[in-house]
Design a protein that fits this description.
The complex is a heterodimer of chains A (344) and B (361).
Chain A lengths: L5 E3 L1 H38 L11 H26 L3 H34 L1 H17 L12 H12 L26 H8 L52 H42 L11 E3 L6 H16 L7 H7 L3
Antiparallel strand pairs in A: 1-2
Helix pairs in contact in A: 1-2, 1-7, 2-3, 3-7, 4-7
Chain B lengths: L5 E3 L1 H38 L11 H27 L6 H30 L1 H17 L12 H12 L26 H8 L52 H46 L7 E3 L6 H19 L8 H17 L6
Antiparallel strand pairs in B: 1-2
Helix pairs in contact in B: 1-2, 1-7, 2-3, 2-7, 3-7, 3-9, 4-7, 8-9
The chains are: A mainly alpha (344), B mainly alpha (361).
Membrane topology (chain A): Multi-pass membrane protein
Main location (chain A): membrane
GO cellular component, one term (chain A): plasma membrane
């Protein structure tokens, strides 16, 4: 007993083929959309790869690009098959491979769903990559004379200004590293000698942040240096000062930015998956309605279209039996196994 | 003598109508494009409204939006005329409208040309407006507690960071203004008292700039204060340091930005003018060819299409005579027609005829 049988006369078949052809063109556009989303994400990751230690995984955007290309290909092919389905002569040449094509489509749809799931899950490894990358970036902030790192200062400054963030977790991260290059420190001055002597590594640490941490919404000119010293500035209390520098950490800011992109891409890929499932079901109905024609030359007759030739349970048992038979292909067959394989 | 005569048989008339229908829809899209361009330009100008003193430059996007909307309507009418042109029963009702259509379409072309010219001419006024606006913004930078001015600091800071500029002409503009609010000055400190006494107005002036002037491309951490004092910073020479702050003034930066925007829209506007002119010419040919065919005994026969029935000079004289008669009818006194009104009307119609160029002549 077939699954979800629908009766088709000629008019209904024509209408079905036309609708499915139309939907296939939308699906091609959807494939292009997935491709461009993958490209966009790849470019966004590349733009800030310095902040991720050049270590970020391009697996997801590459997968999206591949899926987009395959989707375009199979949707264009499916559209052509639908277009030819109205002409029995043309359709006859596609008939043999249609079954395998449909199985391939079903597998592809499963992969597409998996991709959308990955989009939501990739946030977690990204978090660790970002934390490492920003920490190292901050360490190399002062190395504007070291080849390979000379642009780190500009990259970090521009990032802090654009994403309105400061430091890794918060602005205090800048207190723990030396971000002023030795070229600009007067080692004969007492203040410099004190600070260098105050810690084990001999680093010039200070309670100050770079200018890119400053918040333009603050009512007073930005206080960058001696931030924890209330007496250094008039009418200043560093515990209650909220608007002076950005409060958010850059790891959180970048994570929410990329997280937003990935969530949007994931949602769009789910929608594309639904469209793909719809066109696959449509093509299955077109195929089954044309193959159950009693007399292929008599186009006007009625036929039935179905989703699965047998019920779900029977189809599943069939597949399992086929796989078992394939597995035992080389051995001498017993009579019992043959009987199981031919149950219908 | 007819101007630019062309023979049209039935098939050519049909082809012309179909081609013109497509061209008119293209012109409708172009009208929509012009409108969107105007909206975009206006939005960009409004975003920086606070640093501009007057809104004279807004005439450019306003005209663009107006012309865009009018062009959509006009060209849509042209598509309707094309659809009806091959139907002898429906075409006559458009006859009356067509002269007005030509006038309106020519006017739109003139307005678009005017926009291109204006966008160059108004550059000076834009600079003046920015100069005054920025000067005020810098003066009111410290007034973050005065209602109406409390956002000047944020506006100027964001402007300097986004356009990578500092001050009005350059960063020294900040030396002449007190940009630190009195609320954050310790008036008992000796340094503050010295600075306030050092100038006539009693302002706290310093050789320092706000943080938004800092250039991220500088190899050393930003130096904002004591800029003219070489001894205040290690390994620092005020005269040779060029990467520390942005060297460009904000007036120059903003003018360049807006001029760049308007220049890049120039080619688009010029091509829209060309498309509109070709629609006008094609519609004129269609009108004359179809009218000629309807006057024949056999409507499917050959007819002639032309741009002007008589030569340019003769048409001009005819129009002038018509206009004079109209003015005379309106007046009780047959003599003494006001010269200005006559010349103006003649000039208008001459402009309409001149707007359709004659490439072959």
């Amino acid at each position: 007993m077939a699954l979800m049988v629908v009766k088709f006369d000629l008019k209904k078949r024509v209408k079905l083929a036309q609708t499915v052809w139309f939907m296939y063109w939308f699906a091609v556009l959807a494939g292009i959309l997935v491709l461009s989303l993958g490209l966009f994400f790849k470019i966004e990751l590349r733009k800030r790869s310095e902040l991720m230690d050049n270590n970020e995984s391009h697996f997801l955007p590459n997968l999206l690009i591949l899926m987009g290309l395959i989707a375009c290909g199979i949707n264009a092919f499916g559209g052509k098959v639908c277009y030819d389905s109205l002409d029995p002569v043309k359709f006859a040449k596609w008939k043999p491979m249609l079954k395998y094509f449909l199985v391939f489509c079903v597998c592809f749809n499963g992969l597409l769903l998996l991709t959308s799931l990955l989009c939501f899950l990739m946030r977690i490894p990204l978090q660790f990559t970002l934390a490492e990358g920003i920490k190292n970036g901050m360490r190399y902030y002062k190395d504007t004379d070291t080849p390979g790192r000379c642009y780190m200062k500009r990259t970090l400054d521009l990032m802090q200004m654009e994403f309105r963030c400061c430091g890794n977790d918060n602005f205090r991260d800048w207190f723990e590293i030396q971000w002023v290059s030795n070229r600009y420190l007067d080692f004969s001055a007492k203040e410099v000698k004190d600070r260098i002597g105050s810690n084990v590594d001999g680093q010039y640490l200070m309670d100050g942040v770079p200018f890119s941490c400053c918040n333009p919404s603050s009512p007073r000119p930005c206080i960058q240096y001696q931030m924890t010293n209330n007496s250094a500035h008039y009418s200043y209390d560093h515990y209650t000062e909220e608007l002076n520098v950005w409060k958010k950490g850059c790891r959180d800011a970048l994570l929410s930015y990329y997280g937003g992109i990935m969530n949007t891409i994931g949602a769009l890929v789910v929608l594309v998956t639904m469209l793909e499932v719809a066109v696959t079901v449509g093509l299955q109905y077109v195929n089954s309605s044309l193959s159950t024609l009693a007399n292929p030359e008599e186009v006007e007759s009625e036929s039935e279209g179905y989703l699965l030739e047998k019920t779900v349970k029977e189809t599943f048992t069939d597949i399992m039996a086929k796989m078992k038979a394939m597995g035992k292909g080389g051995k001498v067959e017993e009579g019992g196994e043959e009987a199981v394989a031919t149950v219908s | 003598m007819v101007l630019l005569k062309m023979k049209f048989n039935q098939q050519r008339r049909v082809r012309l109508a179909q081609g013109l229908w497509l061209l008119s829809w293209l012109a409708v899209m172009c009208g929509a494009f012009i409108f969107c361009l105007g909206v975009y330009l206006k939005t960009e100008l409004l975003r920086r409204n606070e640093v501009m003193e007057n809104t004279e430059i807004h005439v450019v996007p306003n005209i663009l939006m107006l012309v865009g909307l009018a062009s959509i309507g006009t060209n849509w009418v042209a598509t309707r005329v094309c659809q009806d042109s091959l139907d002898a029963s429906r075409f006559p009702r458009w006859k009356v409208l067509l002269l007005a259509w030509f006038v309106v379409a020519a006017l739109l072309c003139c307005l678009l040309l005017a926009v291109v010219v204006l966008s160059y001419v108004l550059q000076g006024r834009l600079e003046e407006s920015l100069k005054v606006g920025l000067r005020n913004g810098i003066r009111f930078y410290k007034d973050t507690d005065v209602p109406g001015r409390c956002f000047q600091k944020e506006t100027i800071d964001r402007l300097q960071m986004e356009f990578r500029c500092c001050g009005n002409n350059n960063f020294k503009d900040w030396f002449e203004v007190q940009w630190v609010s009195g609320r954050f000055l310790d008036y008992t400190a000796q340094e503050v008292k010295d600075r306030i006494r050092s100038n006539v107005d009693g302002r706290y002036l310093l050789d320092g700039v706000p943080f938004s002037c800092c250039n991220p491309a500088s190899p050393r951490p930003c130096l904002q204060y004591h800029l003219t004092d070489n001894r205040a910073h290690f390994n620092y020479d005020y005269l040779s340091e060029d990467l520390n702050l942005y060297s460009r003034g904000c007036r120059q930066a903003l003018t360049d930005y807006y001029m760049g925007l308007m220049n890049s829209t120039g080619p688009g506007v010029l091509s829209v003018i060309l498309i509109q002119i070709s629609v006008i010419l094609s519609l004129r040919y269609l009108q004359t060819a179809v009218e000629g065919a309807m006057a024949l005994e056999n409507p499917e026969g050959d007819s002639e299409g032309y741009i002007l029935e008589k030569g340019v000079k003769e048409t001009f004289e005819e129009v002038k005579v018509k206009v004079l008669t109209m003015i005379k009818l309106a007046q009780v006194d047959p003599e003494g027609v006001p010269d200005e009104a006559e010349a103006e009307k003649a000039a208008d119609t001459a402009a309409e005829k001149a707007a359709s160029p004659t490439p072959a002549s």
